[in-house]
Amino acid sequence: xxxxxxxxxxxxxxxxxxxxxxxxxxxxxxxxxxxxxxxxxxxxxxxxxxxxxxxxxxxxxxxxxxxxxxxxxxxxxxxxxxxxxxxxxxxxxxxxxxxxxxxxxxxxxxxxxxxxxxxxxxxxxxxxxxxxxxxxxxxxxxxxxxxxxxxxxxxxxxx
Length: 159
Prior knowledge:
Layout: H1 3-20, E1 25-37, H2 40-54, E2 64-66, E3 70-72, H3 75-80, E4 103-106, E5 118-125, H4 130-142, E6 147-155
Antiparallel strand pairs: 1-5, 1-6, 2-3, 4-5
């Protein structure tokens, strides 16, 4: 088989996979939420308790309450990432990763969420996926009021 024929057959065979991995676009995700509150201290207490009860890590990403954005990384972390202070990158933004850990996020960072709330998040997964169903079932055993909410996160360049 000639090289050009081989190359063409490989490209045709991978075209659907490439189309599914579009870059610089929004990707639908479901977020498993344990609590939403306007009080950061309450969210932090819940997140710490949930990390222990669910035996999952708590990852705050260095974010702290901020009057301007709701949450922000430190001045040093913002500068290190190439952003002006204050800066906040919501969980999942950029890499659109699926994740299974506890965090506190600010609702303004997500499309379709009410503004001004700190949300305790237990997982981020593709809508309707097995990972979502498993995470939600596990979380609801300890927190029956937990729920999944649909949003879109950015998959692409953040600068």
